[in-house]
Amino acid sequence: MASPLNALITGSTSGIGLGIATAFAAEGWNVMLNGFGDPDEIEGVRAGLEEKYGVKVLYSGADMTKPNEIREMIAEAETAFGQLDVLVNNAGIQHVSPVEEFPEEKWDAIIAINLSSAFHTIKAAFAGMKTRKFGRIINVASAHGLVASPFKSAYVSAKHGIVGLTKTIALEGAEHGVTCNAICPGYVKTPLVEKQIPDTAKARGMTEDEVIQKVILEAQPSKQFVTVEQIGALAVFLCSDNAAQITGAAHQIDGGWVAH
Asked: Which helix (H) or strand (E) holds 46?
């Protein structure tokens, strides 16, 4: 494994993606951030990581619904870093609604950002990884990539798709030193989860506190949220030499949720 590695993490201006990017930077790896948000806040995060860890930190505002912008982002990372060793597909959005009321434009957006964007990033980065005989691809799926919950038809479909994509890419990369794994977190206290609490409360006719206790943490036997630091540590391990024979797997980090 070359050191330092060069990593690109989609959807990494906050939440899980930023946690993974921070874990990589702490290992001395160069990272490219991606995502939406306030430009000044994003620049503060970028510059802060660069200064704290002494690594190169770039930012791309590529829209994950636009394949051309995705291809340009991958090319920009390869040019700036010299090569792209690690690709983490984390970008995601959510909408909670009964299927008969589910807005079709929300379905299209969730499939595009949560699933199709990973296909486009992998397609753009894969040839370089194969040529160099080294690559680590991590797809951030979800416990919902393995089991379902009501009112999340698009999200569950996309995350199940990500697990299938992970297996396929693992097979295609197996003889070329390229691994592909999925991380399947349970509930993590991120802006995405915080935003869906009121939506779930409305869909289920509950208070927000009832949603946290009876829906979210009820699903996790540990009764604790997963932390972004724990996910970042798993991502770092999956990029290590010790994980070279781990590929095509969906790694649960869910407090026991899927063990039910």
From this structure: helix 39-53
